[in-house]
């Protein structure tokens, strides 16, 4: 099938080396600085608060959101993270997850609403989402390093790429699913498009949107681990060290810590979605 | 000036409505246009007007275009051609702001499936129209509480629509429409989703409310009984066209075409009404043993010009008119000799459709007789009201109380 040569590889490298980096380095540096200080702020905040306080807060939230079971699990999970001395790493991972989820949600929900209401926007956004979801994550880890250097910033960027599609899709779905008769009633009483969105479509979509946020958060957590390969600190780093030194025990302790975080984050966000 | 005026309103759904319009102008039928172009003629040159305070019912089977028509009236659906005037103002030329304002202030709508906001309380639903207008929370909720009382939902303010029965949900829907203080209520099959008993109850309550509020109501239904009961005037729709507009009596007595006639026929059949269902207790029943004096006094008491005479065990003897009674009194002729005996008697199972013909020819009320006993009488009024309202309740209790004097 080789009818003509497509020098995509050379072309891309050429583009990145000779145009993208020289021309946009300043721009990306600035984004990088802002993100880094944001992530650092969240991380140092989480590390500044005594672990006991955080664990108690999480237990209370779990209790309220889900029930006794999850509260007990949060307590045991807290003891576990302390006992295997992975508290600081856990908080670093949580910081990356929080920051990237916030960015994903802040961009994903408006985009989702736009695609639900506007067919052209949907036609443009949908292939981009497909692209983001199917492109192997390692592929964009490379340019992320080039543009943002090593560390937690490219991790957040890569996580954003990886984790945003669900919240966009679920928001779009939720908005579209508002019952036709309710929309019609609202229109009949003279609602503007904004009123319709703010008072009918969005509130009715909240449970679906929260399901999307939940998915985004879970993907962010799994990506935060992979992103340890580009220098992101946290539990992923622990696991990576375990792998590279063939230390099964270290890999397991790190892996279990991730599972603990995943279960708590998942159950809490899920119950927020179903309750509203 | 009519409250609502609809002129030549047409809606064609499909890829090329202009082409559909041309075919319609050429006199093609809905089915032909569908076959040729795949386009659906929703409403075909409908014209009517609704006066202030009138209940105007549009009746048609599903697919007749009635739901499309009501949505053209508030421009939820854009018409292909034709015009709607609300208080003399054309909806067609309004910009978005004017249209929204008209919907907010003049046209309130009640839906078949209620269309309530499931995430809001009953109170918040009822205040929704005013909220859209930007009214302050306290003010709009005070109004909403008042209308909720009017529709009998006091105490349900904090409930959610999903917690209420269908009938109660529709009360919320009606309250929401009333809270807006709009002059015009558009009611799209508003009671069709309710079970028959609740439905009847809601119809009665609507008539009660209407007698107090005097709104202009455009009511859509597929149910002729409902149309006859509620409508001051009724328009019958078929295939997107209005085939007849008239009062209940006009439509029952003088159907415009076979289609309407078929409907009217259905009224009788569907109700399976019989003489016993619509008969009334005779106004006065008196024994043949009583004298002239007694007969005249009885007639005087009830203000009737004639009276049925019965014998022992309610056996029908005949009809006595006041003139004859007086004459007989003066000339001292026995009552039995002057009774009109050829009054029309029917068995209780006589279908109403037969009674209509009999009633037209009969000077006197029809008697319902079984085993030569008088069970009840039927006047023209009771036939018509039977057609419109359905069977007369409690008839049996009443007739059992008839005791010869």
UniProtKB/TrEMBL annotation, chain A:
Its keywords, alphabetically, are: Cell membrane, Membrane, Transmembrane, Transmembrane helix, Transport
Compartment list: Cell membrane; Membrane
What are the annotated GO cellular component locations?
ATP-binding cassette (ABC) transporter complex
Pfam entry (one): BPD_transp_1
Q: Which InterPro entries match?
A: MetI-like, MetI-like_sf
Q: Which PROSITE patterns match?
A: ABC_TM1 (PS50928)
Question: What PANTHER family does UniProt report for this protein, alphabetically?
Answer: GLYCINE BETAINE/PROLINE BETAINE TRANSPORT SYSTEM PERMEASE PROTEIN PROW (PTHR47737), GLYCINE BETAINE_PROLINE BETAINE TRANSPORT SYSTEM PERMEASE PROTEIN PROW (PTHR47737:SF1)
Q: What is this protein called?
A: Glycine betaine transport system permease protein OpuAB
Can you name the source organism?
Filibacter tadaridae
What gene is this protein translated from?
A: opuAB_1
UniProtKB/TrEMBL annotation, chain B:
One GO cellular-component annotation of the UniProt record comes to:
plasma membrane
GO annotation terms (biological process): amino acid transport; glycine betaine transport; response to osmotic stress
Main location class:
membrane
Query: Where in the numbering of this chain does the CBS domain appear?
Result: 279-335, 339-395
Q: Where is the ABC transporter domain?
A: 28-264
Q: How does it assemble?
A: The complex is probably composed of two ATP-binding proteins, two transmembrane proteins and a solute-binding protein.
Please tell me which top-level EC class this enzyme sits in: translocase
Q: Which InterPro entries does this chain map to?
A: AAA+_ATPase, ABC_osmolyte_uptake_ATP-bind, ABC_transporter-like_ATP-bd, ABC_transporter-like_CS, CBS_dom, CBS_dom_sf, Gly-betaine_transp_ATP-bd, P-loop_NTPase
Task: List residues traversing the bilayer.
Answer: none
UniProt name for this protein: Quaternary amine transport ATP-binding protein
Source organism superkingdom: Bacteria
Membership in a protein family: Belongs to the ABC transporter superfamily.
Alphabetical UniProt keywords: Amino-acid transport, ATP-binding, CBS domain, Cell inner membrane, Cell membrane, Hydrolase, Membrane, Nucleotide-binding, Transport
State the Pfam families in the record.
ABC_tran, CBS
GO terms, molecular function: ABC-type quaternary ammonium compound transporting activity; ATP binding; ATP hydrolysis activity
Q: Which reaction does it catalyse?
A: a quaternary ammonium(out) + ATP + H2O = a quaternary ammonium(in) + ADP + phosphate + H(+)
Q: How does it sit in the membrane?
A: Peripheral membrane protein
Q: Which organism is it from?
A: Filibacter tadaridae
Q: NCBIfam families annotated for this entry?
A: proV
* Enzyme Commission code(s) on record: 7.6.2.9
Cell location? Cell inner membrane
Classification of source organism: Bacteria, Bacillati, Bacillota, Bacilli, Bacillales
